[in-house]
Design goal:
Mean pLDDT: 90
Order of helices and strands: HHHHEEEEHEHEHEHHHHEHEHEHEHE
Shape: globular
Number of strands: 12
Strand order of the largest sheet: 4-11-10-9-8-7-6-5
Strand content: 5-15%
Largest sheet: 8 strands, parallel
Helix content: 40-55%
Radius of gyration: 20 Å
């Protein structure tokens, strides 16, 4: 259970990222709506009130009976801390290095598709705010803003791709990603087919969205979203499309007949990952790893890092929690940068995952709720909340850097 030791604190002890973040937040008066947000979960009901049910469903719901989604949170409750005392924690810092890039905290923003549908220019909002606050952010391949625009607005953003099992189309998309200026590629591998849309269908969601009286009413009955996001987007940028699903422009987000392209996704295999490795010169991360055997295959195929993830419980229901498999994967993944997402909500969650072998963790839902509620100010507030929790929890655990946490500070307990 001990975290790997072949990593060191990336930012020198004089780093004052937490204090600087606090000063930055204090310098910008909070919008009134954010004064009632004290933890990441506080964003969710506010986002629900603002969004049409179809779009809220896309962010909030999981697969089938949502067993995986619930298990992701329950897994954290099975671990408890055994803190040190009187250690002297006045030199706390939480900066890390991933792929030779320095970040101010050991957490980042996961890729979530369609972000521009609930926050105006949402992909830019998320990436730009992450860059300003020095945390990693991953742009989704199911996004509605051209990757070139996001890369220009927020250099250093990672790009997440859904690849078909077709070498020609893989090469074309990778060439575009490289030309756009992205340095780190995240290949998501746990979605070979379209997932069960049961809960989406019940709430009227589909991709693309189908025009209907219900969709129209849900839009009209949420005027802040309608005017501030959708109509504003139409007026300034036209109908949103899946801009980055392939090398060419994809389907519009609103259509009565067009279907989303899933061609050859179920053909994708490890041989294609080797093709990607030959073509992609920067860091390559495989997202969706849930078995130590697959982590080893990822390393053999040339990956530089992995993200242990069950896609936030959105794909295969009844899957294990990433936190449950993280220790055995980290133990056998020497040479890989091991990261994790799914279920992160608190600073204590971040530190538990680091204690079990992750070098960085990611959260998608909370940051997208935050962008929905208050755009860049919302995302900045969410980063500040989580960073402040990590700083406080480090002090209470008796450590000065997140990578100092080890198995002696954690115990597995019954629920």
């Amino acid at each position: 259970m001990t975290a790997p030791t072949n990593y060191t604190a990336a930012v020198p002890p004089q780093d004052t990222s937490t204090a600087a973040d606090a000063q930055s937040v204090a310098a910008k008066p909070l919008p009134a709506v954010l004064k009632q947000v004290h933890c990441l979960d506080d964003f969710q009901p506010l986002a629900r009130n603002k969004l049409p049910r179809q779009l809220y469903s896309y962010i909030a719901n999981g697969a089938d009976d949502e067993v995986s989604m619930g298990r992701n949170r329950q897994a954290f409750n099975r671990w408890a801390f055994s803190p040190r005392v009187l250690e002297g924690v006045e030199k706390r810092t939480q900066g890390i290095t991933l792929f030779d890039q320095q970040y101010a905290s050991p957490f980042g923003i996961s890729p979530v598709g369609l972000a521009a549908m609930w926050s105006y220019r949402g992909d830019i909002v998320l990436a730009k705010t992450a860059r300003e606050h020095r945390v990693p952010a991953v742009m989704s391949g199911a996004s509605l803003i051209r990757m070139e625009d996001v890369a220009e607005a927020a250099p250093g953003t990672w790009f997440q791709a859904y690849l078909p099992g077709d070498e020609k189309r893989i090469a074309e998309l990778l060439a575009r990603i490289e030309a756009a200026g992205f340095g780190t590629l995240v290949l998501t591998v746990d979605l070979p087919v379209q997932v069960n849309p049961e809960r989406y269908v019940k709430n009227g969601f589909s991709t693309p969205l189908r025009p209907s009286a219900r969709l129209a009413w849900d839009g009209i009955s949420h005027p802040r979203w309608l005017a501030g996001t959708f109509l504003r987007t139409l007026a300034r940028h036209g109908m949103p499309h899946f801009e980055n699903w392939r090398a060419e422009r994809g389907a519009p987000i609103l259509s009565a007949s067009v279907k989303r392209d899933f061609v050859a996704r179920d053909h994708l295999c490890w041989e294609h990952v080797k093709v990607v490795r030959k073509l992609w010169k920067g860091p390559l991360v495989i997202k969706g790893i849930m078995r130590k055997e697959d982590a080893q295959l990822a390393r053999s195929a040339g990956a530089d890092g992995i993200i242990v993830s069950n896609h936030g419980g959105r794909q295969l229901d009844s899957a294990l929690s990433p936190l449950d498999v993280l220790p055995e994967i980290a133990e056998t993944a020497e040479g890989l940068v091991v990261m994790m997402d799914s279920g992160i909500r608190r600073g204590t969650d971040v530190l538990k995952a680091l204690a079990l072998g992750a070098r960085c963790v990611f959260n998608g839902r909370s940051f997208n709720y935050a962008a929905t509620v208050a755009g860049e100010a919302g995302v900045a507030h969410a980063i500040h909340i989580l960073r402040t929790e990590v700083d406080r929890d480090m002090a209470l655990l008796g450590i000065n850097h997140p990578y100092e946490i080890d198995h002696t500070l954690l115990r597995r307990t019954p629920l």
